[in-house]
Design goal:
Helix content: 10-25%
Number of strands: 25
Length: 363
């Protein structure tokens, strides 16, 4: 009776399996954005702009003034309220002329802050050298910088800012008509054979036919069904909400600079014993000054005295059984008192021993 009750509970409450929407796992080939870049000048700064050594800022201001009929020798120009910046933006796919996009400005000279500045009219060009947008407007840095000769306080990064809706799109990126296509190519953001096959199976099950096929580790080809011909956009809207369970490769990511370790849930290890112990050696120098006797002919001397202490902690050994999971691995390493940096060394040693069945990525 107890066994039957337990079985019913398992059937009524199945284990929850993580799944993601198809739109979060893939991209449609041909639907992509583009990056834009331009060179501009931010003016109106309160003495925090580029110094006299930044010659290109002076040259830029002189060239701008000449366009307005003002001729000034660049040797006589002293700028503190202007800064040269690089302006970058992301042009979304299928954006129309007249729409606005955000831009980011970054100082390239020795400016101290862009707070309170205004970006002057800046053309933004694409990879083909054509102008796709123009940017202008007040710069928001989301912080401040203040200080004096002896100290300085800064909140956020004062030499990088944004101009919300600061660029107007002037040229549209040519894009094909999706509704006229009879075949689509879907690309996974994270390549994996199992995920690609699961996506193809989910599409075929939803469309009730053999329309999708996994071509390689990253690509799925989808033939548009006849009832969706001329209606590809509604098709993409429907299949984008399909739930697919992605397969995550066994991977351990290590960032030695910050001591960060990320371990995937599919990481497995063979039976291995981990011994952890610390050996600390302390060397202390206590120099002693020796004075000569009064009226003596000797000289003052410094006699070094060195004290050396060595301390080795008792090694603690933990045995990890065959096929240990992520939780067991973490608990075992915590049991031996491993810190983040010691955890990195232990994982590398387990990998060298051939017991870590995962890809070890060191950033």
């Amino acid at each position: 009776m107890k066994r039957l009750a337990l079985t019913l509970i398992i059937l009524l409450f199945p284990l929850e399996v993580f799944s993601a929407r198809l739109k979060d796992l893939m991209e449609v080939e041909g639907v992509r954005g583009n990056y834009l870049v331009g060179y501009g000048v931010v003016v109106g700064l309160k003495g925090t702009g580029d110094g006299d050594q930044t010659k290109f800022t002076v040259q830029s201001v002189v060239n701008m003034l000449e366009k307005f009929g003002v001729r000034v020798p660049k040797e006589q120009v002293k700028l503190k309220n202007a800064a040269a910046v690089m302006v970058t933006a992301y042009l979304p796919p299928n954006v129309k002329s007249g729409q606005r996009i955000d831009v980011q400005v970054s100082a390239i000279g020795d400016a101290k802050s862009l707070q309170g500045g205004t970006l002057l009219l800046t053309p933004l060009i694409g990879p083909d050298g054509q102008v796709y947008a123009v940017a202008q407007g007040p710069v928001s840095i989301g912080g401040f910088a203040a200080g004096g000769a002896g100290a300085q306080v800064a909140v956020n990064h004062p030499t990088v800012g944004r101009v919300p809706n600061g660029a107007i799109v002037e040229r549209e990126v040519p894009a094909g008509d999706l509704n006229s296509l009879d075949r689509l190519t879907l690309s996974l953001r994270t390549e994996d054979f199992t995920t690609a096959q699961r996506v193809a199976e989910a599409l075929n099950q939803y469309l009730r036919g053999n329309y999708a096929k996994a071509v390689d580790i990253k690509t799925i080809e989808l033939e548009v069904p006849k009832n969706y011909r001329g209606k590809v956009v509604p098709l993409l809207a429907e299949i984008g909400n399909l739930e697919v369970r992605p397969d995550i490769p066994a991977r351990v990511v290590i960032d030695e600079r910050t001591g960060t370790v990320v371990i995937g849930e599919n990481v497995r290890i063979s039976k291995v014993a981990v011994a952890h112990g610390n050996l600390s050696v302390e060397v202390r120098e206590t120099p002693q000054v020796v004075q000569p006797f009064p009226f003596g002919q000797g000289e003052t001397a410094v006699v070094p005295r060195t004290e050396v202490k060595a301390k080795e902690e008792k090694a603690r050994i933990v045995v990890l059984e065959e096929g240990a999971t992520l939780g067991e691995l973490v608990r075992a390493l915590n049991a031996v008192g491993a810190t983040a940096r010691e955890l990195i060394a232990v994982l590398q040693a387990i990998k060298e021993a051939g017991a870590l069945h995962a890809e070890l990525v060191i950033m």
